[in-house]
Amino acid sequence: MRSTSISRLFALLATLAVCAAPLRADTKSDVKVDIKSDTKADKDDAKPDEDPAPSVTAHTITVNGKVIKYHATTGYIVLKEEEGKPLVKGATPPPADSDKSKDDDKRNKDGLKSKARVFFVAYTLDDVTDPATRPLTFCFNGGPGSASIWLHMGAFAPRRAKLTDDGEAPPPPYQLVDNESTWLDRTDLVFIDPVSTGYSRTLPKENPAQYHGLKEDIASVGDFIRLYTTQNSRWLSPKIVLGESYGTTRAAGLSDYLQSRYGLYLNGIVLVSSALNFGSIEFTPQNDTPYIGFLPTFATTAWYHKKLSPDLQAKGVAEVAALARAFADNDYTLALAHGDTLPAGEKQRIAAELSHLTSLSAAYWLQHKLRVTDFLFFTHLLMDEDKIIGRFDARYTGHRYEPGTDGTAGDGEYDPSDEAVTGPLTAAFNDYVRRELKFSSDIPYETATDVSPWNFGDASEGFPSTADDLRKAMTRNPYLKVWVTCSYYDLATPYFAAERLVAGLNLDAATRANLRFTYYESGHMLYVHQPSRVKFKTDFESFLHDATNQDPVHTAAR
Predict the structure, then answer these.
(1) In degrees, to the nearest 5, what angle opens at C-alpha 138 toward C-alphas 136 and 139?
(2) Would you say the pTM of this structure is higher than 0.85?
(3) Which tens digit of pLDDT belongs to each residue from 310-336?
(4) Domains and CATH numbers, the chain
(5) What is each CA distance from 6 to 2, 362, 412, 413, in whole angstroms?
(6) CA separation for the pair 20, 1 (Å, rounded)
(7) pLDDT digit string (tens) for 96-142?
């Protein structure tokens, strides 16, 4: 089930698919249905050349003592294509038995053929006289194959699933509460479910594979952003794109795609739990990069579970992270580069320091040629307790299916951090979308669906990556601010791997100044941890201020 090929990342990222003083909020939500709303938003018999009518509902929430009035728009935007102009060159052709006459029937008055319906939920502040003064943030999770439910029901929408302050699931049945840390007071929000996720589907006779790929996915989500921006007259609004996990792969790709294809320039990109280059997280033969990138998170995880020696346990998590970074970036990197030619004495020294930083024995590190994979670490850190730690959030633990086994691909273990949040968030959304947003559909809401085989591109190009897309976009757009969030207990997309990757973008000093990092004592879905969720909003407010208050950059040199 868990392989070391590129396909392993479906298992690694699919469910995502993820301190300031707390803000005060009134937890009572006044939900009102707009009488103009079409509450039968599941018109599956709607004509393909028409966008199904959305459901529009009116709401209020109190944040920091201030009542905020807003409306939620829930429904679809239909992706359409001009004849001879596919979203992606060389895209998957229609099925061989496609009936040309039926294709013609799908074309609207502009000659556009309807291809797919993309589901979204948008939150828009009421009583805004000039939309150009109101920021707009597009949000999505990753996978590939994940809906936006994790960000939507866990992070910064006006309503969220109730978890413990540490981000654990309470006993079922679950509850939906007002979000004390919603971003809606600062920005309008649009949560997007890419094709095949959530309620998003291709239209009949359309092949979903034409949207299942690195470039295909970027193009389709980019077209959604263009359409939403156009149909809602938001071209002059400040625009932010936020992605989590594989969503950061998508977001980095979108930064260049939106500029190049549509002339749509962004104010900011937010990368939550980054995965811009799979070479930094994919454990494959002769690729030492992940071993280096994961080591500091092994150290902070061992520190959290009180497995380190007293001298390290006496330090703070940031101090432990700094020590592990320094070793990983220097001695460890050099040792791995020497491979089999590393002298025996140096191997012993490196193994001893690896043991000191992780609590795994020096003998174990030597047995594995100084290279311990993520799955081995998940199963071995707490092996004496017959427990496994979470991939998405290493703070979580669970009892092993097969105690004592080595954690390789055939063991079929589970992720306790995934189990902790999936139930509450899924239940909350399925209730919320019908009862409060007044949207109904009988198709299943696909929180994390199988979209394999995903077209990652030509193997000759190396590991899938959109890092260079981000570099190009930042270089051409001097106003593009980029924010990278890092979590100390994220063992899916580790913080040091993100730091090293961004350091290698080769940006000039002025462009590099547009980058910022923030750190959280949480995991992949940093926002499930209540203190981190509060800090996340405070950090966003600072980022948004910088991204929307800039002086002109003078490039017409004389």
Answers:
(1) 140
(2) yes
(3) 999 999 999 999 999 999 999 999 999
(4) 8-95+114-279+430-548 (3.40.50.1820), 282-417 (no CATH)
(5) 11, 30, 18, 19
(6) 41
(7) 445 555 555 556 667 799 999 999 999 999 999 999 999 999 999 99
